[in-house]
Amino acid sequence: MSADDLYNALLADAEDQPPDWNLQGRQVNIWKSLGYIPQDLIEAGGANTKQVSRALEYAFGDFALSQVAQLRNN
Fold first, then answer.
1. Is 32:55 a contact under the CB 8 Å cutoff?
2. pTM of the predicted protein model
3. Where are the alpha helices (DSSP H) in 1-74?
C-alpha cells in the first residue's frame, strides 16, 4: 500500500459518515455542517451521548490529518 493510499483512507474516514457511525467512524455530517456535536440532536445510526468527547476526538483527528497532509506537500 502506498503513502497516497494510506492518506486517502485517513481522509475517507474523516469525510465519509458510515451508516452506523456510533460503532465505527465519525458523525461527519453534523460535524462538518456545524463544527461541533450538539447535545440535543440525535442522528440516525447513533446515540445522543458523549458529544464533548466526540468533538475533542474529531478535532484532534482533523489536526492529525492536517499534519499528514502538510508532510505530503513537503
1. no
2. 0.78
3. 3-15, 28-34, 51-73
